[in-house]
């Protein structure tokens, strides 16, 4: 809601989101109203199931929209926005685009992921990166065969994400790249640990998924040359998958925290490892580490290299080179790479946040006049 907070200072803002109650639920805040519409499907966004039949039915319903057209039309017509600002709003598709076209309201889509082109939201399947949409994604995509002309501006969180959308010819409108930021209030009361060169602590935080490169990282820690270092893993995932990983990689120097608050994780580590093997759009953990002046070792996939280079925040390795990650970790552990030399500089977080939202506001004002 940070965008809404900032934009409401100089503009009239209404926030539209999904809810669980029947009909329309309205919540008043100090600066803007929040309107909730029930998302009607077998299960809600963000949840998952292993039952393939239920998945098929969910995607079929979602293809034609889980939001009632008449309810959404009524709200948009009552609100009379000059611009609609979309954030990961697939639950409202395709109805929202059709309503915007009918009412002649321009849309600015802030694109954080692959949800507009991939039903799995990762462009990664069977251990491989998908270069283009597969037949399944085209079949179940709510935006297939929909006139997307109301979307006049697309804001991407990385150049890598923008390139993949352009390759798949999803949007042909004006596009802008804006890297994610972390709210400045999320870093309060953080104390960075003192660096112990005799025992380097590496860290991984995020969803425990194969595409996140967790197996590549764990495999690197089977090397005896890293026995005097430590690996801390934070995050959740499929229970059976995590159990298998713990059984296979039962090293004493690997510690699993489960899901924890970011500060509780970052205060334990010396360096963050982001070993993604998929084209990750832009991992927020990169920004979290940079804001806490923690150096990073990252794969060369997706938008990660952009952030590392932009902030001089660490090292990048090539995932096509089999031992690249292991070799870097060993060099850091052996002090052949000095962590102090790759530690990001201190940033003015309030200034970054203010600049970011001013740019968003400018884009929205310009888009509203298209």
Summary?
The chain is α/β, with parallel strands linked by helices and 370 residues long. The protein is built from 13 helices and 15 strands.
Q: SSE string, helix = H, strand = E?
A: HEEEHHEHEEEHEHEEHEHEHEHEHEHH
The number of helical elements comes to 13
Using the coordinates shown, work out and report the CATH topology of the largest domain: Rossmann fold
- Supply the helix-strand structural class: alpha/beta
Task: Draw up the topology in text.
Layout: H1 2-7, E1 15-19, E2 24-28, E3 33-38, H2 52-64, H3 69-79, E4 84-87, H4 95-103, E5 107-111, E6 124-125, E7 128-129, H5 135-140, E8 151-156, H6 159-167, E9 174-177, E10 201-205, H7 214-220, E11 230-234, H8 239-248, E12 254-258, H9 262-266, E13 271-274, H10 284-291, E14 296-299, H11 304-311, E15 314-317, H12 324-333, H13 349-368
Parallel strand pairs: 1-3, 4-5, 5-8, 8-9, 10-11, 10-13, 11-12, 13-14, 14-15
Antiparallel strand pairs: 2-3, 6-7
Give an account of the 3D structure:
The structure is a single chain. The protein is an alpha/beta fold and 370 residues long. It folds into 2 domains: 2-178, Rossmann fold (3-Layer(aba) Sandwich); 184-342, Glycogen Phosphorylase B (Rossmann fold, 3-Layer(aba) Sandwich), CATH 3.40.50.2000. The chain has 13 helices and 15 strands. It has helices at residues 2-7, 52-64, 69-79, 95-103, 135-140, 159-167, 214-220, 239-248, 262-266, 284-291, 304-311, 324-333, 349-368, and strands at 15-19, 24-28, 33-38, 84-87, 107-111, 124-125, 128-129, 151-156, 174-177, 201-205, 230-234, 254-258, 271-274, 296-299, 314-317. It has a 6-stranded parallel beta sheet, sandwiched between helices. Helix 6 (159-167) links the parallel strand 8 and strand 9. Helix 3 (69-79) packs across helix 4 (95-103). The longest helix has 20 residues, at 349-368.
